[in-house]
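Forwarding the complex inputs:
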Amino acid sequence: MSPLRYILLRLALALPTMLILLTVVFLILRVIPGNPIEAMVGQKAPPEYIQQLMEQTGLNKPLYVQYLDYIRGVFTGDLGRSFIDNRPVIADIMDRFPATVELAVFSFLVSIAIGHALAFLAAYFRRNVDEAVRLYAIIAYILFIPFFGLALQLIFGVYLRWLPIGGRITPGLEPPHITGLYVVDAAISGDWPALVSALKHLALPSITLGIVISGVFTRFIRNNMVKTLEEDFITTYRAAGLPRWRVLMRAYRAALVPTITMMGLQLALLLQGAVLTETTFSWPGLGTLLLERIQYLDYPTVQGVVIFYVLIVVFINIAVDLVNLAVDPRLRRGVWQ
Amino acid sequence: MPPVLVVEGLRLYYGMGKDVVKAVDGVSLELDRGEVLAVVGESGSGKSSLGYAIMRLLPENAVLYDGRILLHDGGAEFDIVSMDEEALRRDVRWKRISMVFQASMNAIDPVSTIGDFIYRIVREHRPDLDKRRGLAAAAEAIKSVGLPVSVLDMYPFELSGGMKQRVMIALALILRPLVVILDEPTSALDVITQANVISLLKSLRGDVSMILITHDLALASEIADRIAVMYAGKIVEIGPSDAVLTSPRHPYTGALLESTPTLRQDRALSSIPGRVPSLIRPPPGCRFHPRCGHAMDICRREEPPMVDVGPGHRAACWLLRT
Amino acid sequence: MAVKLYVGAAVVAAILIFIAIPPLLIGTSPTLSTDRPLLPPSPAHPLGTDYLGRDVLARLMYGGRVPLGVALLATLISSIAGVLLGMFSGYTGRWLDRLLTMTMDSLYAFPGLLMAMAIAAVLGPSPLNAALAIGFVYIPTYYRLARNETQVIKTFQYIEAARALGASTTHIVVRHVLPVLTLTIVVIATINLADAILTEAALAFFGYTVVPPTPDWGADLSAAKSYILNGAWWLLTPGLMIVLAALGFSLLGEGLADRFGLRKKL
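Prediction (whole assembly, three chains):
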């Protein structure tokens, strides 16, 4: 099998997952409430208005037609138009998506940095250090993001005044739009004030989310490494006189395959954590978009954002598989031969 | 010329829950240059622990490790038990003593090609070798154990058990160590592969000194110059292979021979009555007395000393003192 | 480590007492202004007052009832639904099993909080709806466990024997499979309660569980947001309660898992 065919096969395998999730979302948003527009807008709204909205969204059609339209919409990128600004939903989403990506990527980097550092410490020193690291993993995981975020805002933003407590950048400093990721755009265009401001604004939110997510990552890397350290090939390396830290590196390398698979499953945590972090730090991403539109009863956008999250999840799962392809020799041999 | 390896009063205890397992309990032996010494015994006799103890590969729960393990190389002498960890790693492990593990199936890094795996270890002790020359050396070693060079590009999951065992033997020899410890090198292999590995080991005899740890007396008799019989953490008899096999002086050695099938004689096989004693609470006196047909009063009370019973042949039994 | 178990049990017990005793100890109402707003902690108000002049301690004590009640109900819903589906799927096998497993795996990969938000948004804010929403998203956790265990148990000899004696599928599953599973489920549910508490807190923070003035830790933290950033640090205490409650159940569950040797199943 060639790599290209593997990727295509993997995409094909992702289809059922995507369809299942889309169907569940459809059932939740359209079938549970009976009349979703009424459920969201409330029964007090004038019937003509509800009727008009239902026609606009196609909710007056039979359920199976709605379902087919819905699926077709997903595949053609047509998620309908917003009740609020009458723009295509996908346009609103694309405006907000880069902010979420920026937050998620930086938080992810923070969490894997912490996860690796602590897991290596635990595996190197064992005993008390290991116990402390395990305790850290439990506590980091249960830190309620709004609480933890507000506490950090209070300390570093309000009392110490080191860092801004909300927003993506100081207003007026926005870099030219290239990718939509402020850090990247500012770096590409050499806009130093924008870069510094963007990084300062990213610091607290990504540290908050990064620490919370580092709980699971620390646990996975530590567990897999400790398990691998009991394997026979580790004894070979020890007997062969490799220094302790190099033996650890090999254990880490061998543990990478199961670790990545497990981490891939936990990326859902990153996405839901991002929603809470965005709310806590007034971060203009997809999560805050979703909450705003739920409040404004903008049914098409709410549905569109949830669908978009489905697509992100499916995409991440494929990406994790491709990373595993690079890391797992068994998989690689199977694909290339 | 002094023996290449001298072990004196070696002890290795490790904790298991609240108990202490006396896996190696006062073992002394010598190994001459180019000699093959087989350590035989039932499983649970501590013979594998002895191999690990000589490498100072201690289990995480080790509670006692003492005695002396002197390694002589030219004028240099190393005491493995007491030497500095860093010096041990740099000067002794693999460079002067290497080991072929019982579980060779999993002894190779699963996410590394054989070539990278071997080179990674070679480089540690031969920083002068660049990758190209390191791999050339690995290719040489691989060929010497009868494997095609293409193995270097393979992952362990692409090799059979016998091939992996050969890779481990090649790896053990690649730095030309003084001593190789082989822990049950054939036990996980099928009969034909076993025969291949045995003939490979035979061909290596004389170049390096070997400690062959095995429960297989037939294998020991085929390869070893001398045999040491281990029982409950102690050596009970040691001597030239012929002497130990044809005129065993310790009742346990005799019983072990009785229980071993041979092709030459067709006599009834007998098994040794009783069970292998616990290493946590070994019997007082002679540790074999509960299973011994000749047990006397003194055997239950006092541990028998080692006595000379022939040229280079010694055994620890009260029968030999009376 | 037994320490986890004891500390976890102690924290859980302390929180349960804390939310159970207010009628006995505190005369103050959690929903009425009793003093000036935003007073820092003082003997009269050990944890100060909120932006409406309500006693924060009283709100903390009453505010744990909805979160813990919702989390408990949600865990009950998801464990019952998940275990039933899982046992059924694991015992029946074939295409139904594959379809259900695929569905559950897909749901497991999706951010549970987002799913719960969607459900809560269409159902409207109420504790019961929040429990339904949270209960739904944790079904896969129990499904996976019950299905895998059922498949293993199915091959055991005594099950074969029961089948040979003509026992019905339902009978076998209920009499032989369920008892083996119960301990594991209880332990997992304890750990899962921590997750459920955090998800409830998030929904409450977004305004999906209670309508003001009902006290709820998550909702109270959300309402206090801007005041906290103006320096009213004592209004962070509802968040601390959420973290303590989640920590307590987490440690208790992990401690139980260690005690019963279930670590591998987590």
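The mean pLDDT of chain C is 88.
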